[in-house]
Design goal:
The chain has about 500 residues and is of the alpha/beta class. It has helices at about 40-45, 45-55, 85-95, 100, 125-130, 145-150, 160-170, 200-215, 225-235, 245-255, 275-280, 290-295, 310-315, 315-320, 365-370, 375-380, 395-400, 405-425, 440-445, 450-460, 465-480, 490-500, and strands at about 5-15, 15-25, 30-35, 65-70, 105, 110, 115-120, 135-140, 155-160, 215-220, 270, 300, 325-330, 335, 340-345, 385-390.
Length: about 500
């Protein structure tokens, strides 16, 4: 009978996974189980879950002194995913499992008192950690199987309860998993399309350009003109997720504990303006992804941008440039992706009626200036396009009826053309004009002499910053891609400059 047992498991750590070795030792003494190795309260409570799960699965729990060590000891451990490997370690100590039966295998799962295995968060992180370590087989909760299948090149088995897994390891019962492939696209209830928005042709054109090159866009206009509706249209204009994007999005939502399913559609995160910095950028005592990471490869929608606290707005500056966020804590750092497209809206003034021909603005000049100053220059510099959305006459609204989807389909065709051009230019999908560095702009983009002349003249008159100067070029290149033009012409630069004027 082995007196020391070793079981391999893993835990999610930020955007990655970390291997954990569960070591067990059994000696004569007062019956009980002690868990050491920097586990939190949840792991400490696993003692009772493990004891009940083993006995209720018709297996023997030894009446001796048991010590469980979670190595490496300096790594903080959290969550319920170590229940299953702890239980298997106890079964090894009692001689019910042999070392050869768990060799080159990794185990993770939460145990219920009746022995059933519940799903855990961050399952993709766990499976990826096993694959990276060269482990051949991973045993996980059956409910996590769909997400885990996104990781290729490793044998994944989903177990429903401890007894079933025990019999499988003993060779008395083979677990058969139903490897159904999920639907490629989840049905969307009443999707909002461009044709549903009355008028606003310039805003529709700007939104199409923004999506084509993944440019951040700010919609400025009075209340009720369709700004929020346009933002919701954006998700339905974005192309379907690639397998790599699907894995990344699902991985983040899994570690956040939001879903056990595979994410099939691009995320649309719309945090309220009272949301804290931590909830939006991520963090906390146990650093979790925030809204900017949950919006990865999708849309982050900030309605009424000036209403957000200054600290929240300024915290977006670095992620908008780096497409990632690093959360630092005393013991470790975690880095989450934040490759989102920002769509923001704002009113022209606090009351929202500045420039409205039908309703007089009640704001003072000081109130208007203070309202507009809530958005700092560096933040506005990181927004590629600013569009004014005008008010539509009520009589026009009452007569408007969306009878088809011609505008929406035309926009999708323009976006597809632009994406093909970008893939051809940069040699791989997923690289967009908005993410180009100044070096890439000088080496990969071509401007006509007239376009360069107009840009130089306009940048001087508009007093554009260096970042804004390059953003105009990026937006112009996206417009050229929609036209399938080999170079950026004066027409493309002129239209791009319109979206810098505020």
């Amino acid at each position: 009978m082995p007196m020391v047992s070793k079981i391999i498991s893993a835990i999610p750590m930020g955007y990655d996974g970390a291997l954990v070795e569960i070591e067990g030792d059994m000696k004569k003494g007062l019956p009980g189980m002690q868990i050491v190795g920097m586990g939190n309260k949840t792991i400490e409570e696993s003692k009772e879950r493990v004891r009940s799960a083993i006995t209720n699965s018709d297996l023997d729990f030894p009446s001796k002194k048991i010590t469980i060590n979670l190595a490496p000891a300096e790594l903080p451990k959290d969550g319920t995913g170590l229940d299953l490997p702890i239980a298997l370690s106890v079964l090894m100590l009692n001689g019910q499992l042999r070392p050869v039966e768990v060799k080159d295998k990794l185990f993770a799962g939460e145990l219920a008192l009746d022995g059933s295995i519940r799903s855990v968060r961050g399952i993709i992180h766990i499976v990826e950690a096993a694959k990276k370590a060269g482990i051949e087989t991973v045993f996980i909760p059956a409910k996590n199987l769909a997400q885990a299948q996104l990781v290729k090149g490793i044998n994944i088995i989903g177990a429903t309860d401890l007894r079933q897994l025990f019999l499988h390891l003993k060779g008395e019962l083979a677990i058969q998993n139903d490897l159904k492939q999920p639907n490629k696209k989840s049905p969307t209830i009443d999707p909002v399309i461009l044709d549903h928005v009355c008028g606003q042709n310039q805003a529709k054109r700007a939104l199409t350009i923004a999506i084509s090159g993944r440019h951040n866009i700010l919609l400025n206009g009075p209340p009720g003109v369709g700004k929020t509706m346009l933002a919701k249209v954006a998700v339905n204009l974005l192309p379907e997720l690639s397998d790599e994007e699907k894995l990344s999005i699902t991985k983040i939502h899994s570690v956040a504990g939001i879903t056990d399913d595979i994410i099939q559609q691009r995320p649309f995160q719309s945090p309220h303006h009272t949301a804290s910095v931590v909830s939006i950028v991520g963090g906390g005592n146990k650093p979790k992804p925030g809204d900017i990471s949950l919006a990865n490869y999708g849309v982050l929608f900030l309605d009424e941008l000036p209403e957000y606290p200054r600290s929240v707005l300024e915290s977006l500056r670095q992620p908008l440039e780096d497409k990632a966020i690093t959360v630092s804590r005393t013991n470790y750092k975690v880095r989450y992706p934040a490759d989102f497209m920002l769509i923001a809206t704002m009113n022209p003034c606090p009351c929202g009626h500045l420039g409205d021909p039908d309703k007089e603005c009640t704001c003072t000049t000081t109130q208007i200036l203070n309202y507009q100053k809530r958005l700092s220059g560096p933040l506005l510099d990181r927004i590629d396009m600013v569009v004014t959305v005008s008010k539509i006459d009520n009589s026009t609204l009452s007569k408007y009826k969306a009878t088809g989807d011609e505008q929406h389909q035309a926009a999708i065709s323009s976006i597809d053309r632009a994406l093909r051009q970008q893939t051809k230019r940069y040699g791989k999908p997923g690289v967009y004009n908005s993410g180009l560095s100044s070096k890439d702009i000088s080496t990969k983009l071509k401007l006509s002499s007239e376009a360069q002349r107009i840009l130089t003249l306009a940048s001087s008159k508009l007093n554009l910053s260096t970042r804004a100067y390059f953003k105009v070029i990026k937006v112009a290149q996206t417009i050229a891609d929609m036209d399938e033009s080999p170079i950026v012409t004066d027409k493309h630069i002129s239209e791009a400059l319109q979206y810098r004027m505020k």
